């Protein structure tokens, strides 16, 4: 999960929660009074305390004296986005449903995933990955090309027939 911090009038800064060390995750959890699993769930729900705690600890790597109370972003300055691995897991999961439901077409899956690029930290990667999976899923639906084979030779009947020369009377 990526937390994007966009300070007022500034450029977006991305902070990868997966890059936290165990000690840093413990500091976040203690600071926001949650367990680490609650913090992770909070990131997915855009919980302000969880996002603030993660960004604060990651900012402390470059500014060790930064206090939690000194880092107080506006509520609109923090959002979460999915990283590339999370996007691929999400998309792969959606396309895997096709095996269980033959009526589920790749196009319907793509429609269901329409919001994924907006939820991704790298929207171009998300769009390209969805398209790649759509193409691959479409290939699975195409009939296998049949190898050209010649028809077996027709056996002729050993019984001979005489040609008729017109209607008999």
Which helices and strands, and how do they pair?
Layout: E1 2-5, E2 13-16, H1 22-32, H2 36-44, H3 48-60, E3 78-81, H4 84-100, H5 106-112, H6 116-119, H7 123-141
In brief:
The chain has about 170 residues and is mainly α. It has seven helices and three strands.
Question: Can you offer a commentary on this structure?
Answer:
The chain is mainly alpha-helical and 169 residues long. It is built from seven helices and three strands. The protein has a three-stranded antiparallel sheet, with helices on one face. A hairpin with a 7-residue loop joins β1 and β2. It starts with a strand and ends in a 28-residue tail after the last helix.
Q: What kind of oligomer do you see?
A: single chain
Number of helices: 7
Strand order of the largest sheet: 2-1-3
Radius of gyration: 31 Å
Terminal-residue CA separation: 95 Å
Percent of residues in beta strands: 5-15%
Given helix and strand content, the structural type is: mainly alpha
